[in-house]
Amino acid sequence: MQETLTGLPGLFFSAFISSTIAPGGSEAVLAYMVSQRHFDVQELVIIAAIGNTLGAMTTWGLGMLTAKKFSVPALLPEKKQNALNIIKRRGIWVLFFSWLPIIGDALCFAGGWLKLPILPAFLVILLGKLGRYAVIAWIFV
Known about the structure:
Distance between the termini: 26 Å
Number of domains: 1
Radius of gyration: 16 Å
């Protein structure tokens, strides 16, 4: 049972949950698994990045669904709308920073709310998350 929780499916699940609205610690799981040297490091990084990206896209989808039901002015005061305007101006590349703690989930949600194109959003989010997990793996090798 413990192998299932700490194996590749456990890493994927931890990474997925960590990138949704629920808090998680996928970085710690990855660091532990890399330091144990039971798995290929590249495989660990890819699995964590895919799980985390799919979690981010779930948050992106929630943003898109929210946009269908509520308009921006109905939910956000004017000062908060300025932040969305910055995301509108910068576009898809803001999602590269979706790996950042606290604001990363909000960026993905805003990306969906603003209806940024899904495939480019997925690729930019994946790129950022791959970079973050690669750095973590490199530190713990």
